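quick one, 302 residues, struct below
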Amino acid sequence: MFGDDEELGDILHRVLASGDNYANEIRLAPTEVYAEERLLECRVSALQRNRSEDALLIEMWDVTRRTRISRENALLIQHGAGRQMIRQLAHEIKNPLGGLRGAAQLLERQLATDELKEYTEVIISEADRLAALVDTLLGPGGPPDKRSQNIHEVLEYVVRLLQPELGANIRVHRDYDAGLPQINLDRDQMVQAFLNLIRNAATALDGRGLITLRSRAAMNFTIGDVRHPVVASIEIQDDGPGIVPELQDSIFYPMVTSRPDGTGLGLPAAQELISRHGGLIEFDSRPGHTVFQVLIPFTDAT
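---
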């Protein structure tokens, strides 16, 4: 049940030696039976079976899921608080996009070869995508324009876009579940959400490290107050220094960032776009291991 858990052993020895009761939450590391870390509410009481022999009464409740639901609700509250600010900032972003697109069109007319024009086509295409995204953020929050998408193809497109920023010393490892079905998604919104998340991972690595993209199906998962039979779990993992503890409780609020040149808008915008698909972004971060997990219900799977 517990593997070789040193913390639990220390608690038992301490209660046995002192006779004092213990009540607290403890974390159990993954074992061969349980692949994930578990959070338990633990109570240990000293009992005297007879005059010569002491014993311990150990009571445990697995509160992993309860704690996770509470955390998800906190993330949803953060998201609601940041939504209005994101819309205000989106209005400011929209104005320069028209000039960017127009400049790219003028430049395209001056280029002699189709090979060079491919670059201006990318600029124009991305400007159009961002303009549509800004219109979405400014709008009343209507339903996304969902179409059947292969989530792995979306991830690979984002990696190609970011390739110049990644450089030679940041490696990208794929750990995809090839059995995931296609999902009805708004492609532009998904591209922007994953663009923000993968770019953040690359920035945290500061030019050297490993980014792992992982996809799985998760069963019986609760998002907010809705329980879904199956959700797609997309993880973006990096081996950077991690998010500083003092920011972890507010990381999805706008303008919260640990970088001097950061805007603090990438994560709130990503959370907004994923929420429009009924999903949620969670994270776990410690030095050498930071994972942002995108959860999208398979309700509209095809």
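The chain has a mean pLDDT of 82.
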